[in-house]
Specification:
Elements: H1 4-13, E1 26-27, H2 30-34, E2 40-55, E3 59-65, E4 73-78, E5 91-100, E6 108-119, H3 136-139, H4 150-172, E7 176-177, E8 183-184, E9 216-217, H5 222-228, E10 234-242, E11 255-264, H6 269-290, H7 292-301, E12 314-317, H8 325-334, E13 340-346, E14 364-372, E15 376-383, H9 388-398, H10 405-412, E16 418-424, H11 425-433
Parallel strand pairs: 1-2, 4-6, 7-10, 12-13
Antiparallel strand pairs: 2-3, 2-5, 3-4, 5-6, 8-9, 10-11, 11-16, 13-14, 14-15, 15-16
Helix pairs in contact: 4-6, 4-7
Length: about 450
């Protein structure tokens, strides 16, 4: 085993790259090339895919993209280059001089000295055509190729930026990141819409179950976070979750990502709502700051008129039946098309772990949902029932005492008031980008009767 100091010394002394005899062209991403402040003929190398080709008598113009930005880099080449292989979709490596552009459309351009076609593309057979704006439904037929389009590129860059922003928010707020398991014996939601995990028929196991108990793909990391909240005051997880819902609607996926957090020594829904609101606002402001062109593209071509505002918040505190999607959207619209917190749901509608408000005759639990325009429910959270006897009675009424004895143990050994929430990451992206179908904001959508790739 390396000691910490020995490991640092070994890392510093490691070098796998030999010293070059001649200074090579600096490799730049398209984003860095476009952002170069001093384009004075520096020799650079850019690798990417051709987005357009335009040939004139003595000059050849290419636009090359590598996914690092929405904007492509213009490459200016001598007409002597063989333009037959330089087709839309082909991958290329271009070496040349980065110079100031004479065009008003871009600040810099690459004056090519060498163009190497790395991979040819049959533009006629390629399902996406240059200058043609394909509907998202059409792109969905080609999950292995759709990432090459401008709109999917923008969505995926926003997804990446939002992921980083969420991690930064929790890190800056002092949360500990927990990797909760994908395989679990718990049904957190109690809905029973689970994917059961079993070994394939080729694996020889005894008659009993591989794990000795039935196991499933997780529907939530909440219960595992509650375990960790007995040792860390603030924890979060961010990973895939699974629901076996027989639905092909615009709102449902069989596999999706959840952001979940749990906070110890938390005694009010108001404090929990502040964290939820802070996560939403901070992440959105970061995305708007770092991906303005990508967000604008979605708003311009997918959701015209979509606007993101710094939201005020309104609260409704009411008792009644459960809310369906049409009710959620009505509430949001009724309150001025801004996010709305709905709190204190009837106890009978919610899982066993939510804290009893002891407010007969209404009999509610300390639960909260954040509803947003165009989507409906985005966040769901609650205070957790930390009182042993209350929880014991709820589990007994549900016939779950034996299965959740470990959960009761958490209340026996140093229990504290605590609460937490979950946010559907794909729904968040739908909300800020104005995208109607959830299948368009995840790279490889899985839903009933469809698991391509």
């Amino acid at each position: 085993m390396f000691g910490a100091r020995c490991l640092l010394r070994a890392l510093r002394s490691c070098s796998s790259a030999p010293c070059p005899r001649h200074k090579p062209s600096a490799k730049l991403s398209v984003r860095d090339a476009l952002g170069a402040q001093n384009a004075s003929g520096e020799r650079v190398k850019v690798q990417g895919w051709i987005r357009s080709v335009r040939s004139q008598k003595e000059v050849l113009f290419l636009h090359v993209s590598d996914g690092s930005s929405l904007e492509s880099l213009q490459v200016v080449a001598d007409s002597s280059f063989d333009s037959r292989e330089l087709a839309f979709g082909s991958s290329v490596e271009v070496q040349g001089q980065l110079v100031k552009s004479l065009s008003k459309r871009q600040n810099v351009e690459l004056k090519a000295e060498k163009i190497e076609v790395v991979g040819n593309c049959d533009a006629k057979a390629f399902p996406f055509k240059y200058k043609e704006r394909h509907p998202l439904e059409y792109l969905r037929q080609y999950p292995h190729l759709r990432c090459r389009t401008n709109v999917q590129g923008s969505i995926l860059r926003v997804r990446s930026e939002a992921t980083a922003a969420i991690h930064s928010f929790f890190k800056d707020s002092g949360f500990v990141h927990i990797h909760t398991p994908v395989i679990t014996s718990n049904d957190c939601e109690g809905a029973g819409e689970l994917f059961q995990v079993k070994p394939s028929s080729k694996v020889k196991v005894p008659e009993e179950n591989f794990f000795n108990v039935p196991v499933f793909l997780t529907v939530s990391g909440q219960l595992h976070l509650e375990v960790m909240s007995g040792a860390f005051t603030q924890v979060f997880t961010f990973g895939p979750t699974f629901r076996a819902e027989n639905s092909q609607s615009r709102r449902h996926l069989a596999e999706f990502y959840m952001v979940e957090a749990e906070i110890s020594f938390l005694e009010s829904l108001q404090d929990l709502m502040q964290v939820m609101e802070g996560l939403f606002k901070t992440t959105t402001m970061t995305v708007l700051s770092n991906c303005p062109e990508d967000v604008e593209l979605c708003h311009k071509f997918i959701a015209p008129g979509q606007k993101i505002r710094t939201y005020a918040k309104k609260q409704l505190s009411n008792w009644g039946a459960d809310l369906h999607t049409e009710h959620e959207k009505y509430l949001v619209k009724h309150c001025g098309d801004i996010p709305v917190f709905v709190i204190n749901y009837p106890l009978a509608l919610k899982p066993f772990y939510m804290r009893d408000n002891e407010d007969s005759p209404q009999h509610t639990v300390a639960a909260v949902d954040l509803l947003v325009p165009g989507v409906g429910e985005l966040f769901g959270g609650s205070l957790r029932e930390e009182r042993y006897h209350f929880l014991e009675q709820r589990l007994a009424r549900s016939g779950l005492t034996e299965a959740y004895q470990w959960y009761l143990d958490l209340r026996r050994f140093g229990s504290v008031p605590h609460g937490g929430f979950g946010m559907g990451f794909e729904r968040y992206l739908q909300c800020i980008l104005g995208i109607d179908n959830i299948k368009d904001v995840i790279p490889f959508p899985r839903f009933t009767h469809s698991c391509l790739l």
